[in-house]
Amino acid sequence: MTPPSRRSSRGAAVVDFVLVLVVLVPLFLGILQLGLVLMVRNTLSSAAAEGARHAAALDQDLADGRARTREQVDDVLAGRFARDVDVRLVSLDGQPTVEVRVRATVPPLGLAGPGVPVEVVAHAVEESP
């Protein structure tokens, strides 16, 4: 017969493993989700800035900036991130400025949950002849 102290600790490693996983898996998925959101935000920001500079060039119009932004996003991310691209001419400190605004939703990594909305804005002063 086995001593009572030996019998009661049997299977404790499995329980400990499950308890640790309950904490570590959501933490790990949260860190991955944060990394994904930051990567998408930085990519959209860079593409919006490139599109604004392209649209602000002397011989370009706003549609060229929109197309350039969508092309930049589509090269790095999926094309669905470039669906909502708004390009317009605004006045910033009295200067005509091209504003590019990109909105997207980053999907969740886990089994459930809402997507994370991301919005970036970029400006470039329009060139004049």
Automatic annotation (TrEMBL):
Keywords: Membrane, Transmembrane, Transmembrane helix. It comes from the Bacteria. It holds the Pfam family TadE. Residues 11-53 form the TadE-like domain. The chain crosses the membrane at residues 12-40. This is Pilus assembly protein.
